[in-house]
Amino acid sequence: MHIVAIGGSDAGISAALRAREVDPDAEVTVVVADAYPNFSICGIPYYVSGEVTHWRNLAHRTHGDLEAAGMALRLDTVARKIDVAGRLLHLTGPDGTDQDPVPYDQLVIGTGAVPVRPPIAGLDGLGPADGVHLLHSMDDTFAVMRTLAEAGTGSAVIVGAGYVGLEMAEGLSARGLAVTQLERLPEVLPTVDGELGALVRAQLESHGVTVHTGTDVKAIARADAGAPERLRVDAVTAGGEPVTVHAGLVLVVTGVRPETGLAASAGADLGARGAIHVDKAMRTGLPGVYAAGDCVITHHRLLGETYLPLGTTAHKQGRVAGENAAGGHRQFAGSLGTQVVKVFDQAAARTGLRDHEAAAAGFDPVTVAFEADDHKAYYPGSHKIAMRFTGDRATGRLLGVQLFGHKNAEVAKRIDIAATAIYHGMSVDEVSDLDLSYTPPLGSPWEAVQMGAQAWVRHQSARQTR
Amino acid sequence: MHIVAIGGSDAGISAALRAREVDPDAEVTVVVADAYPNFSICGIPYYVSGEVTHWRNLAHRTHGDLEAAGMALRLDTVARKIDVAGRLLHLTGPDGTDQDPVPYDQLVIGTGAVPVRPPIAGLDGLGPADGVHLLHSMDDTFAVMRTLAEAGTGSAVIVGAGYVGLEMAEGLSARGLAVTQLERLPEVLPTVDGELGALVRAQLESHGVTVHTGTDVKAIARADAGAPERLRVDAVTAGGEPVTVHAGLVLVVTGVRPETGLAASAGADLGARGAIHVDKAMRTGLPGVYAAGDCVITHHRLLGETYLPLGTTAHKQGRVAGENAAGGHRQFAGSLGTQVVKVFDQAAARTGLRDHEAAAAGFDPVTVAFEADDHKAYYPGSHKIAMRFTGDRATGRLLGVQLFGHKNAEVAKRIDIAATAIYHGMSVDEVSDLDLSYTPPLGSPWEAVQMGAQAWVRHQSARQTR
Known about the structure:
The first copy, chain A, is of the alpha/beta class. Chain A has eleven helices and 25 strands. Chain A has helices at 10-22, 44-48, 63-68, 138-149, 163-174, 194-206, 261-265, 311-325, 355-360, 411-423, 448-465; strands at 2-6, 27-31, 71-74, 78-83, 88-92, 102-103, 106-109, 113-115, 132-133, 155-159, 178-182, 210-212, 215-222, 231-237, 242-247, 249-252, 256-258, 289-291, 298-300, 304-306, 339-343, 346-352, 365-373, 384-392, 398-406. In chain A, the strands form seven sheets. Chain A has a five-stranded parallel beta sheet with strand order 3-2-1-7-18. A five-stranded parallel beta sheet of chain A has the order 9-16-10-11-12, with helices on one face. Chain A is globular and about 70 Å long. The first copy, chain A, starts with a strand and ends with a helix. At the A-B interface, helix 8, strand 21, strand 22 and helix 10 of A face helix 8, strand 21, strand 22 and helix 10 of B.
């Protein structure tokens, strides 16, 4: 049995590890397009910031760890073509030449995603050598670091204020750069409600980041001679006002799209947002071909099929694909879009659906805001957590939770409590039945998530009484 | 409609608050035996330590807050007798005289628990004036503070190393006292496995606490003239060796027993550990009489009826009793014994059953230890979490989790994720299906609890393969 995984990131490596766990006799090969298998892409901002002192530390596992787990790695090797009928994988090797096709019994495609190139004039003609960067891979990271090492890179423009954009704003600020963040949508971190996005924005601004929201970047160009920095970014606000920022580095981080060329040319069906269509067993429909990670559609427990690329999901999907490739029968249980981001001293987290997402999915949502202490306020060091609870009016079902609070306010694990509740289809009211822990330095007799749930229930009762 | 709650602590106040929420027209009276309604008894160690600067800060709500919520408080008033047939409550007032009986429609008994007095020679003849204390109420707390204020109280013996004993060891150490902790059982914090208890003990010792486990206290006496401190504690080790410690303060914190006299004399049935028997609606069986909190049996989701007094449970039971007293139909969903304690810089937490508890309850438990980082180790400030997972061999059901780690390692909220999983009867394997949050500074792509669950599953697979 020879199992081949294409992709050295979360999905491919998880598939390979799990295949070896399930079938220790399986031969497992991982084809990695670059030289960095199993690197933590999510950790890149912390290498840029200097908090991670060496890029090698970003590896979840070393090359040696991976080989010890029983997989063969083919680095700097690109999967060019899948011969589905012949169960052969055609590769281009490190030297750029075609290699002998690799026979496989089961194949897992984990080609991931690539950064979106927004339609900005001048973007295509500029690159890392000019100080203009996309950011997705280790090679992209090294290119950014080279720009940062150049004399005179004292300021940066970040186009986009999603997760990566915010983390890079922090990382570049930590390196002493003056950072300007430009976001097309009305608020930063548009994956949470604007009320929480505004708190994130305040956090950015309090750390010296200049934020322009509702601001669409139109052009990036080399600045005129005599300009304060070498690059010029021209944008326009929603009100039509021009915004011009000069910077030594421009980072364009406006999201990703699934990398599906290999799968599509092999005949795989595509689904939501053009991602590879898979069933919950991660089967593509092509015989012997699984796919997982940022290149595939996401089965969402509340939305059905969507596209929601996250590292956590890629790990789970990869594990399912690897187990099934090795003869197992596991199903991906579905995403809830659970995610958290740290922005300087604060963290924002969400799970499930926001109000408008729930409405679009056919629910009748009600969203209630509440604030609670992370632990008893009489014990030193307590922080407020801003919460937003979304539930279904008719059934009372908990649909989504959003949290914002200090990085030490356990926001990430609190969202996980909510995620576990939503996973099980709990009503908002039933959340109060959960037996959760308490000691004054670390919580309250009613966990903050329960207090938020009770606020939602009170709000509903008041409406019904009225 | 007049609802009367007896008891100013978690259960009584929760019942009163909830009754007013459910029926804003209800007249609600709370009978409080002392002058401290709705005080956080769990916060006492942090007042003793000095971290809570004024004892009034320990109030969850002020007297004014409670009255604003619509309840009448009768302080320093003891419920002497319940006339069940006449629905009258007989009270003794602040001046020690009988008051006019109070008619009620629905009654909630929340008389709580009282400290156990272990059979130690000399204990009955010594009291706060001698420096010998039990600790359960605000009055007890003030007595301890008076002893601490006396010249020459430079050392303390704590008899018992459960939650309160450990917290008081920290609190008294923080005040500069030399603390000796004596525990009859083989390890401190006997509510978790010895492997984790040993880590708690190391934490105590690293902060200067002298710990004697397997050591049974036999006598407390006034020390002889010329002794280094005014009190002498004599104990004996499991091996029969005598241990003698002198101290200026002796604190006996060896657990509690339910305070049931009032209910029993009214004819209420008693159940596990002599606690008041209630059904899941918190009904005692006496018409119009509910009971909740530390005075009642605990419905446990895995054990059935037991006695497991916890503040969190008292809040939930009180809320159920209050809702039902006001005409509702809520059921207590059951405890999992979820709890956490901070000991200096570390925290220990548990939910569900330990191996021997599960075996006694008829399961076929397997317990597996694992260790994981609280967040990606490449990001600064990561801590190891020691974990113990207990699952059922035959069904794979998750039965219990125990965690130990740094106080900032989010151990409390991680045990809550596990508690939510156990609440829903998840298998250990299914824990990996939960969609939990990740960012490198706050977690890992597989949450630590999922890594522990996977270790359990691997352990089981290895046994089956062997």
